[in-house]
Amino acid sequence: MSLWVYCDWLIEECFAEAKGEVGLDHYEVRKWDSWHRHITLCLLAHAFLAVVRSSVEQEEGQRKRGISISA
Q1: Is 16 among the domain residues?
Q2: What confidence score (pLDDT) does residue 70 get?
C-alpha cells in the first residue's frame, strides 16, 4: 500500500513540474490529434530536462569530491 502511495505521489509531482516548466496545461483542447501532439511534446521536453538536470547534478557532485571529468 505504501509503495502505491509513493508511486502516486511521484506521478503527481512529475505532472506538477511539467505544468510549470514546459506548459503542460497551456493547451485548450480543440481536436484530439493536436492535444495528443502537445502532451507528447511536453512530456518529451520534461523528460529531456530531467535527464539534463540529473547529468548536471552528477557532474557538480563529482567536482565537489575532486574528481575531474575529461571532455
Answers
A1: yes
A2: 59
Long-range contacts made by residues 41-46, C-beta under 8 angstroms, separation at least 24?
42/18, 43/18, 45/21, 46/14, 46/17, 46/18, 46/21, 46/22
pLDDT in tens, 11-51: 888 778 888 888 888 878 789 888 899 889 988 998 999 89
For residue 4, pLDDT beyond 70: yes
Q: Which three cell numbers stand for residue 61?
A: 557532485
Domain limits for position 38: 2-64
Q: C-alpha 8: how far from its chain's center?
A: 15
C-alpha cell at 52: 539534463
Tally the domains of the chain: 1
Beta carbons within 10 angstroms of residue 21's beta carbon: 14
**The three three-digit cell numbers of residue 53, written as one number:** 538536470
